[in-house]
Amino acid sequence: MTHELSPVDLAQRLESLESRLAHQEHWLDTLDQAVVQQERRLEKLEQLSGLMRERLREQHQALQASEPQGGQRPEDELPPHY
């Protein structure tokens, strides 16, 4: 049993499908833009993290170079109330 649609019904279905497709394309574009923005933010954060790691490494090396060899470090000393 085949059910044939009238030209008006076919036109309505086609219009509905086109509308749904346009809506989906809009959201796909929106999501694509969001992914691009997130990728840019991630790249910036990775750069910042690398710079912070490098600065921390430099500060650690400077601290080690300024410490007397075999001496106590301030963080190893007990507070005066002990």
Molecular structure report:
The chain starts with 6 loop residues before the first helix and ends in a 16-residue tail after the last helix. It is built from one helix and no strands. The mean pLDDT is about 90. It is an all-alpha fold.
In short:
The protein is mostly helical and 82 residues long. Helix content is 73%, strand content 0%.
Keywords, separated by commas or semicolons:
82 residues; mainly alpha; 1 helix; 73% helix
Shape: rod-shaped
Low-confidence stretches are: none
Give the strand tally: 0
- Rounded to an integer, what's the Rg over CA atoms? 33 Å
Mean pLDDT: 89
Note the topology.
Elements (H helix, E strand, L loop, with lengths): L6 H60 L16
